[in-house]
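lol ok so funny story. i was supposed to be doing the assay writeup but got distracted and ended up predicting the structure for this chain instead. priorities right. anyway since i did it might as well share w the group, maybe its usefull for someone
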Amino acid sequence: MRGKKTNKRQRKPSQVSLRSGQVEFVKVGTDAWRWRDVYRWLLGLRWPQFAAFVASLYVGLNVLFAALYSLQPNSIAGSTGGHWFFDYFFFSVQTLATVGYGHMYPQTLYGHIISTVEIMTGIFLLATMTGLIFVRFSRPIARVLFSNCMVIAPLNGKPTLMVRIGNENQHSMVEAEFRMMFSRDEPLSEGGDFRYFYVLKLHFDRLTVFPAALTLRHTVDDKSPLFGATIESLQASRALFIVSVVGIDPVLAASVQTQKDYSWRDVRFGERFVEIYTEHGGGRLTVDYGRLHETEAAE
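and the output, tada:
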């Protein structure tokens, strides 16, 4: 007995590239794309990329409808006749924006049908782009500046891992929470390596008010997973650090979050951050953000 033939084509394994800090993850065999993801993709674009996308979409739609109008040359009245495609293109621009100067207008059933479809498309496009632009403008941004490196130096007689962060907003962040995670490869008794993750205990992990700049600190004692670590051991274990800041923007009353990762190459032993605060008296402090990344040799 012959088996039934199946016409189903084997789906090629989809591939998605996702970059998280300095690490790029390539996902294979997952659902690569859904229409719902277009919204997130548009929100994730930078402003120049978003503007270029909107301009390309706008010009492309007008070229499309100009080509549709040109299928019936007499569908639009008032055309100059010399440069008919440009006439249809600019008529499409007027129709898509629902401007209608009155010089050109549809005069056949075909022209009315295409212009009706274009007007409906223009209304939908205007509503969609207005919503996207509003969300992009209203979305709060943490604006937290992280130091380019991490340092390990003695603090109060104990080796301490430190990273400096600064609030770049013109107002304080409130209910700020800080977290530092450390991951590395460790050998298994069965053979091979396994990725382990540790939450490093900080001297403080939350502040009611975060106005300017501060240094997050983790003491490297015998209870720390970094105890006895060297730059060579961090390199061999492919060490990775992730620093996260979560807080509330008091102006928008919305939660904001940002993070930065550091590899073993970003860790400097025997160095500390330079002083960036200058006191002027009367409760006034100057914070030099230009020196936030600078370090010096520790005594």
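The CA atoms of residues 131 and 296 lie 49 Å apart. The first strand starts at residue 15 and ends at 20.
back to the writeup now i swear
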